Queue: 2 jobs
Job 1
Amino acid sequence: MNQLATELNQALDQTVAGRLLSQLGREMYFPKGIVAQTSEAGVKATRFNATVGMAFEKGEPIMLDGLRTLIPGMSPREAVAYAPTPGLPELRSLWKESMVAKNPSLAGVATTNPMVTGGLTNGLSQISTLFVDDGDTLIVPDLFWGNYRLMMQVGRGVTVESFPLFTEAGGFNVAGLGEAIGSRSKAIVLLNFPNNPTGYSPTLAEADAIVEMIREKADAGTDLLVITDDAYFGLFYEEGLLTESLFARFATLHDRVLAVKVDGATKEDFAWGFRVGFLTLAGKALEEEQRSAIEKKLMGSIRSSVSNSSRIAQSLLLRTLQADDYESEKLRKRDLLKDRYATVRAIVENMTNDRLRPMPFNSGYFMAFRCNGISAETLRLALLDKGIGTIAIGETYLRVAYSTIDQSDLDALYSEISATADSL
Ligand SMILES: Cc1ncc(COP(=O)(O)O)c(C=O)c1O
C-alpha cells in the first residue's frame, strides 16, 4: 500500500470513518503528482510556471475567439481553465456558508469543506468508492431513485435492502428503517428527502424519531454511514416538515455515525446540466486530522475518476450565488413550484378514481400514484399514446413530475391520467 494511504488510514483508524472504509477507500490517497506540484508552483513559481497541462498566451489560458464571443463577461481563466480537483475554493466556502444559512443547526459544527463533484450522481459514486465494498448492504426505502440500484448494486456489487417507505397511516416508516438496520456491525443507509419518486419529506416528529432510532442503533454497536441525498432541498410546501437536512442532526449525533451530505446546484438552483454537486462529511468522532484525511482520500477518488469538475459551470454558479437577487429569485421559483403543488393537491384530493391512489407528498418535484388493479406500465404506455409522458416504477407506481408542467395545464394533465386509468 502507498505510504500516503497508510498515513491517512492511521489518522482514521480509531474512528468510525476508519472502520467504515472500503478496501478501495483504504488504498486511496492524493498523490504528490502533477496537481500537487502545480499548486505548489502556483504560489512559488513567479518567473515561469511550466507545470500544468494547459496552453497559455501572455499569461492567460488560450481561448478560441468563437467561444469568447459566446461568453463575453467571463475571463478565459473563469471559462476554460481547469478547476482544482476539490473545486474552486471560493465556491466551496460560499456553499458551506449557504449550507449553514439553510441549516442553522450546522452553525459551529465542524464538517469537511464541501467538495465539488460532477453532479450529485458523481458525489454518490465518490462516497461509494471510499466506503462501499462488494458484498455490503445498502438500506433504502422501497421507493427510491432508480439510479441507486444501478450505481450500488450493478456498479459496486451491493445488496439493496429496502423497507416500506410509508406506514399504513401514510407517515415515514421509522420502525421499518430500524428493522432493516437490525443489529449489523456496519450499516449503509441512504435517505433522500424530498423523496424521488414520491415527493415526501418527513415531519419534524418523524425526523426526531429517525434520528433517535439511528442513535439507538449506534448505541447498540452498529457503525453507520448515513448518506442524505438532498437533491431537492428547500422545496418544502407544508407546515410542520423538517426544513433542515437530516445531515445537520447526524453530523453531531454519535461516535459511531459518519454523516454524508450529497447536494448541489442541479435541482436546488435549477442548473441541471451544470454537473455541479457537493459532498460534505461530518461525524461527532472526527477531529480536524480525520476530516483532512477524508478530504485527501476524496480528492484521490475524484482525481482518479473525473479528475475535476466543469470550471465554467463552477464559475457561473459562484457568480450566481454572489448575486444580490439570488435568494429572492430562488424564492420566487420555489413559490412557483409551491403553487403547482397546491393545485395538484387540490386536484388529487377531489379525484375519485379508485384505480389511482396518490401516495403522500408535500415537497420536491414529484408526486406518485399507486395503481390499483391496473399496471402502471400499461397506464404509462396508454398515456404516451395520448402524447403524455410519465414514469412507471415497476407495475405499481406512476410518477408525475408536476414540476415540469405549467400551472394552467395541470387540470388537463390529471384529467387525462384519470380518464386513461379508467379506460384500461
Ligand atoms: C434523488 C436524486 N438524487 C440525485 C439526482 C441526480 O443529481 P445529478 O443530476 O446532480 O447527478 C437525482 C436526479 O434525478 C435525484 O432524483
Job 2
Amino acid sequence: MKRALSLVVMLALVLSSASVLTQPTGQVTLRVTLDGQPADALILAQDRFGKLFIAYTDLKELGFARLTLPQERYTLIVDRGAGFTGKPFTQEITVPAGKTIELTVSLQRAFSPAKEWSYYSADLHAHSTASLDGHTPIEQLVVVQRAADLDLVFISDHETIAGHELFLKTAQARGVPAILSEEITTPLGHWNAYPLNCAVTYAPNKTPKDYFAAARACGAQIIQANHPGSSSDGYFALLGAEIFDYGFDAVEIFNGEFDQGDAKAIEQLFKFWNEGRRYIAVGNSDDHDWMDFRFERYGRPRTFVRVEGEVTAEKWIAALKSGRAFTTYGPLVNFTAQDGKVLPGDTVTLSRGQEISLKAELLVLPRDPSQEEPRTLQSAQIVKNGKVLKTFTLSEERAVITLTDKPAERSWYLVRVVADDGDQAYTNPIWVEVQ
Ligand SMILES: [Zn+2]
C-alpha cells in the first residue's frame, strides 16, 4: 500500500552493530544548531558501499551527538525538518581509527511558516514503545519529532496512556508544547482523542458512541477518525449502519504515504462537507519506528495550524477545532479570502451576486537529505464544493494564486497543491453563506 521509496530510504540498511565493531573504529562528535540555537537533528552517515548509519542528537544534551563508526569514508548528513525546514548539512568525512572528529553544524530555516504565517505543525498520530507494536522509546519520540522540526510534540499509543507522564516531562524539559492522546479501537475504527487526562479503556462490545463519550469525559476536544478509508479497519465502511455515530471532529485524509484509503477518506469528507458536516481535515505519519524510514516517517505528513501569539497545546487544539489548518507532505500553503481577513475554518456571509476573492501563497522546500536539487511546485487547484473550480500550472518553488468567484448558494472552497514529486497538501475549507 506504500508507494516508491525515496533515495535515502532505499539506502537505509541498518547494520547490526555486532558485525561492524570488529573493525577499528573512530568517533565523530557534532554540535548542531538551528538558527543559532542548539537543536535536535537526525544524523545519517553513509559509507562508500551505501550502508547507512542512523542516529539522532542526544536526549539529554540538546544538539550534541557522539557517533562511533568503523574506520571508513562517509557522506555525513545532518537533517532538521524532513524537507519542511530547509537544506540539510552534508559533508564528506573520513573517520580515522582511534581518533575523534569534531564538527559544528549550523542549520538555517529556509522558510518559517511559524514566523511568516503563524502556522505551527504537529504530527497527530505517533506511536512509542508504549504501543505493543511501537519501537520508538517514549523519550526519543520527543527527540525525533523535534528533529523533524515539528512545533508541538504528540503521542498516541494503542489503548494506553502509559507513555504520557515521561513524554510530557521530556517535552517540558525542552520547552515544547505536548499533546497527549491515545489510539482507541472500536469495532471498525481507530480514533485519536486529544487532549486526554485519563485513559479510555478498550472493550470489544462498546460502540463508537460509547467511546466518544468516554473520551470527552477524559477531556478530549478532538476525536480524530484515523485512516477511515482503510479497507481493513476504516470507520467509513460503517457508513449507513446503525452503529455509525457522527460525534467525531477530525478526519485523517493522509495516513503515512498516500494510498487508496486516503483518497477514499477525501472523497467521503467532501460529501460530509457538502452535507454541511464541518469535520477537520488532518494528515499524520502513524509512524512506529524512529530507525526505519521504509514506510512512514515521523512528521511526514503533518498538520499545520494557525495560532496567534504564543503557542500552547490548548490554543493550538482550539484553532485546529475551528478549522484553521492545512495538511501536507511538503508544500506549504497560506490560504485566505477577502484581503487576508478570512482564514480556513471561517464563514463569510455574502449577499447574492457579491464576490469572494481567494488568495493562496504557496511554497515548497527540498524534500529530504538525499535530494540535491530543489523541488518545485507543479500545480494548484481551487476546489469548490468538491469540484475543481480552477487548476493553476506552476513551475517555481514559490507562487501566489488568486481567484474571484460569485457563489450562488452556500459553498466551501479549499486549495490543493501538488509538488513535482507528487507530494501534496490540502487546506481546510473557507465556508460561504449566501443571503
Ligand atoms: Zn496508529
